[in-house]
Amino acid sequence: MHKYGKFAILIAIIVGALLWLATAGIGSSQTYYKTISELQKMGSTASARTVRVGGDIQANSIVRQGSVVKFNLVQDSRVLPVMYDGRDPLPDTFKDGAQALAGGRMGADGVFHASEVQAKCASKYAPKPGAAPDQLQKKAAEAVRSSL
């Protein structure tokens, strides 16, 4: 009996460790962000902690001034001015109309001061209206070949 007790304890430790790793991995892989309206509802707490806010880059709002990039995020009818002064270069998909996530703090001046920006352009990957599925597969294969 003593032998089986040690074995059961060992199995319980292994299963517990695997469950802990699985739950920790799920929590860290989530990319949670605030909407512009949620950020504005936070009030002064938005300036006290680092948050991520998402929205679409407003057309003709990107202004580069040396290493600083200013732009507006839009969501529904709300506009959030953003100033990015990060070390990393902005992604190639950072352009008018692209979806973006900005991480940083809300300033007392009403401008969101971002230290990181991620952008994606959904229209780049969306199929054109009326395109046949085999045409889409050919274009995807060509894109993969050209990236290699």
Question: Can you describe this structure?
Answer:
This protein is α+β, with helices and mostly antiparallel strands. It has two domains: 1-30; 36-125, Nucleic acid-binding proteins (OB fold (Dihydrolipoamide Acetyltransferase, E2P), Beta Barrel), CATH 2.40.50.140. Helix content is 39%, strand content 28%. It contains five helices and six strands. It has helices at 2-29, 36-42, 45-48, 122-125, 133-147; strands spanning 51-57, 63-65, 68-75, 78-84, 99-106, 112-120. A hairpin with a 5-residue loop joins strand 5 (99-106) and strand 6. The mean pLDDT is 80.
Quick structural summary:
By secondary structure, the protein is an alpha+beta fold.
> What fold name stands as the CATH topology of the largest domain?
OB fold (Dihydrolipoamide Acetyltransferase, E2P)
The run of helices and strands is: HHHEEEEEEHH
Rg measurement, Å? 23 Å
CATH homologous superfamily grouping of the largest domain: Nucleic acid-binding proteins
Distance between the termini: 60 Å
CATH class bucket of the largest domain:
Mainly Beta
What global shape is seen? elongated
Helix coverage percent of residues? 25-40%
Compute the number of structural domains. 2
Low-confidence stretches: none
Counting helices, strands and paired strands, the structural category is alpha+beta
Strand order of the largest sheet: 1-3-4-6-5
Largest sheet: 5 strands, mixed, barrel
Total strands: the figure is 6
Count of discrete alpha- or pi-helical segments spanning 4 or more residues:
5
Proportion of beta-strand residues: 25-35%
Q: Mean pLDDT score, rounded?
A: 80
Annotated CATH architecture of the largest domain: Beta Barrel
